[in-house]
Amino acid sequence: MMNLWWLIRVARSLLGRPSLWGTACRQAHRFAHPGWWRRAPFLPLPARTLAGFRSVTQYGDTARIPDIPDVLTWVGWAKEMERGWAEPSKRIPGPDY
């Protein structure tokens, strides 16, 4: 699954996109395994079950490591979603329940 080298590659890819830094940090925090700081490798990686589920839904294989461009696209999408939450005028119209 994801490891230190993959995380370094993602970080290097994000270096040239400072507008995504905050969103990437928030997403890493949201997906991090609870108590990640208490066990090696002391990185905010998602739980194996969550990472496996995400890999199956995207690639059809639990062992597939996410492609870096896919991660960057996802972080960009997450940023747009966060912006929509913060600015009601940009929310996607939907049915009123």
SSE arrangement:
Layout: H1 4-15, H2 21-31, H3 48-59, H4 68-86
Commentary on this structure:
- With 97 residues, the chain is mainly α.
- The protein is built from 4 helices and no strands.
- It is globular.
- The model has no long low-confidence stretch (mean pLDDT 83).
The helix/strand class is mainly alpha
Strand content: under 5%
What's the tally of helices?
Answer: 4
Whole-angstrom Rg: 15 Å
**Spatial shape:** globular
Unreliable stretches (pLDDT < 50, length at least 5) are none
Number of strands: 0
Main sheet record? none
Order of helices and strands: HHHH
Helix percentage range: 55-70%
Average pLDDT, to the nearest integer? Answer: 83
How far is the first residue's CA from the last residue's CA? 40 Å
Could you list some keywords that capture this structure?
single chain; 97 residues; mainly alpha; 4 helices
Outline of this structure?
With about 100 residues, this protein is mainly alpha-helical. It is about 55% helix and about 0% strand. The protein is built from four helices and no strands.
